[in-house]
Amino acid sequence: MKIIAIYSSKGGVGKTATAVNLSYSCARSGRKTLLCDIDPQGAAGYYYRIKPKESFNRKLFLKGDLAPFIRGTDFENLDLLPAHFSFRNLDIALDGQGRSTNELKRIFAGLKDEYDVLILDCPPNMTLLSENIIMAADLIVTPVIPTTLSILSFAQLIKLADKLEVKRKKLVAFFSMVDKRKNMHTDTILKFGKKKMFLVSEIPYLADVEKMGIYRQPVAASAPSSSAAIAYEQLWLEVWRRGM
Amino acid sequence: MKKKWLTSILPEQMELATLLSGLPEKYSVQEGSVSFDTISYLDTFDWRLYEQKLICQFRGNGTYLLTDFAGGNRIQADGPGPKKLFAHDLAGGVLGEKLSAVAGIRALLPLTEIARRSQSFQVVNRDHKLILSGFLELSQLLNPDDEPIFLGGSLRMQEVRGYDKIVMKVTELLQSRGLESGKPEERVLRLALAASGRSPLDYCSQFSIVLDPSETIAQAARKIFLQLLEAMERNIPGIVEDIDAEFLHDFRVALRRTRSLLGSMKKRMPAADVDFYQRGLQEIGAFTGPVRDLDVYLLEKDVYHSMLPEGLQEGLSVFFKELSGQRVKELHRLKKAFQSRKLKQFLAGWRSYVEDSLLTTALVTAHEPCRKVAVKAIRKRLRRILKDGSLIGPQSPDDTLHCVRIQAKKLRYLLEFYRSLFPKTEMDSLLKSLKKLQNNLGSFNDLSVQQNMLAQYQLGLNASEQRQALQVAAAIGGLITHLHEEQVSVRQKFEQTFEQFSSAKNRKLCDVLFNKFPYRAP
């Protein structure tokens, strides 16, 4: 099972939209896929119309007792583990478990026979949970809005990965919510786009992505021939090639 | 991800709205499209799919579908129409592979045809999240002369992972409306067959008969003869239509069994009767032989090709082309023989002899209890095999193995005729070890026959077409070498196989089965 984490310490960069659309493309490619939402906002679950079971909580998650709480999406090969509100304190809980950076790895180990790919929709922070994510993932995909602050937060991620002695090969970024009418966006892409860590694929700022909140489906399901759907499909193919 | 299929049988024709009404308020049923299909069910003549709890359908849109009895575990593939299907017609796909594993070389034949109305549906929650999806299916038998006959309906549902509570509620609701979980596909097939006067497993290649130990040997033989005659008669149409090679094979096995039993009845039936029918049966054996011999080679075509390098393939193709040509001619002769009045009269005469005269003309010795006769015959045969087999060493001529092979075959027939008279577990165990011995001896013999046939063929190659003759001769030479090597290896395994058959464990088994062990090696 390959673990792909969609992670950024910055909020509002399009992590959930990426996780939702990449998991859909992954499942469509025939791989048994689990989208695991560890962001307590639970937006990935919202997009797939899935609520967590009432009996689910952070304690059970940390125990690794995940299977009973996984729910099927409307799509072949794609399941989802919805986030629970109690995940907001995952950091504190991890802290209480001896500050290990390998807890997430242990938690997900039980799923390895059932799924080919696990995609993590991560919350925006830079804490012990982030360190666990970096250690557990085979590939960390970071959406970067072509702005200074967003680039800065990616630089912080590289620093953290270095501290954890994780190979930089594990980190990739792509430009998200790109608006070519903005000079800052085009300048930033020109400056950083050639760097090895950046993927060629970009996700433009598109209304179809925003409309996911209305249709509550991946864009490729509600508007299969839209440019947003095509952009995510290309992104997925590049992510898969890079990671595997 | 969708989970397993849940299948229920409808007690009567019902509408989807009625079936699923009364679900908790937050769930709603969305009715989908309706489709109509004609479905042909197929199986081999000896029900190889049904025996494995599988069902093969051909749908009007040109699709073959393999399911389990409940309609689940579906594998499908497009293929040619439903008249007759071999696994190799669907080669290269999952369905072809599965059919090949189950049906082997047998053809799948259409058994019956039904019409099906299928309506899709979904159960969704307030968020329009899919919870359950499925089909309501109603089947009826097409009846050209009358109203269609309703064969039953089913509800097939696939649950979505993680929504167990609503699935339980739906299941309870369906149960309260009289639906039972079951295997609708098997049920529909069975009902459709019944309407045309057939039932599953009404033919089996394996010989099986239940005898009463208190029956006389004449009564038992009568039963066995009749069952074997029925097997022969049932296979004749398939031979004449040339459906697959197994019809002729099964026919000849039943014929050999009949001859073997008739031979063992020599001293219990009037000699003239035995002679007359033995001669007739022998004639049938003779005229059915050539096609079967050719079938043996043609069925192994791929194996033969795999024995030779690329350079010799062309010569081998010429050889097989010629064999196919010969088969056409021989099949023509065979068909004529089967359609002849002579054969029909002979088989009818044999039937009336067995049915009406066998018991009245039987000699005094035929009134012994069948179990006693069986024990005596089996012990005699076992004694022969163990004696002859134990004398075979690495230097013994091939003929000695051939004699043991014939003895083993006769023993096998005896054990199969009379197996119901003895304890099952021990009998099965003895048969299993006998089969191992027979496999070794059979392979040895087959390899010998094949080499002889190829050598004969090589001698008769037409010298006028020299180039082609050379190619074929080279291919045949290659085959003979390969077969000889294999035969040497099989021969080397004989001693070990025979040792296993004549082991102390098997002797003890025979003690239990047949009271006293017949022969002990010095």
- CATH fold descriptor of chain A: Rossmann fold
User: Roughly what percent helix of chain B?
Assistant: 55-70%
Task: Return Rg of chain B in Å.
Answer: 29 Å
Q: Tell me the CATH architecture of the largest domain in chain B.
A: Beta Barrel
Based on helices, strands and strand pairing, what is the structural class of chain B? alpha+beta
Q: Any idea what the shape of chain B is? A: globular
Q: In which order are the strands of the major sheet of chain B placed?
A: 5-4-3-2-6-7-8-1-9
User: What's the mean pLDDT score of chain B?
Assistant: 90
CATH class bucket of the largest domain in chain B? Mainly Beta
N- and C-termini, Cα separation of chain B: 69 Å
- Biggest chain pair contact, residues each? A-B, 17 and 12 residues
Strand content of chain B: 15-25%
How many beta-strand runs of chain B? 9
Description:
The complex is a heterodimer of chains A (244) and B (522). Chain A has a single domain, classed as P-loop containing nucleotide triphosphate hydrolases (Rossmann fold, 3-Layer(aba) Sandwich), CATH 3.40.50. Chain A is built from 12 helices and 8 strands. Chain A has helices at residues 15-28, 43-47, 58-63, 90-96, 103-109, 128-136, 148-163, 183-192, 207-210, 212-215, 219-222, 227-243, and strands at residues 2-6, 33-37, 71-72, 78-81, 117-121, 139-144, 171-178, 198-204. Chain A has an 8-stranded mixed sheet, sandwiched between helices. In chain A, a hairpin with a 5-residue loop joins β3 (71-72) and β4 (78-81). In chain A, α1 (15-28) packs across α12 (227-243) and α5 (103-109) packs across α6. Chain A is globular, with a radius of gyration of 17 Å. Chain A starts with a strand and ends with a helix. The model of chain A has no long low-confidence stretch (mean pLDDT 92). By secondary structure, chain B is α+β, with helices and mostly antiparallel strands. Chain B folds into 3 domains: 2-195, Beta Barrel (Hypothetical Protein Pfu-838710-001), CATH 2.40.320; 213-363, CHAD domain; 369-522, CHAD domain, CATH 1.40.20.10. Chain B has 16 helices and 9 strands. Chain B has helices at 16-19, 48-51, 94-103, 164-176, 184-195, 217-240, 245-264, 271-299, 301-307, 313-339, 341-361, 370-390, 398-418, 424-459, 466-501, 504-514; strands spanning 2-10, 28-43, 54-59, 63-68, 75-78, 109-124, 130-141, 149-160, 180-181. A 9-stranded antiparallel sheet of chain B has the order 5-4-3-2-6-7-8-1-9. The longest helix of chain B is centred in the C-terminal third of the chain and has 36 residues, at 424-459. The radius of gyration of chain B is 29 Å and the shape is globular. Mean pLDDT of chain B is 90; it is low at 517-522. The chains are: A alpha/beta (244), B alpha+beta (522). The interface between A and B is medium-sized, with 17 and 12 residues.
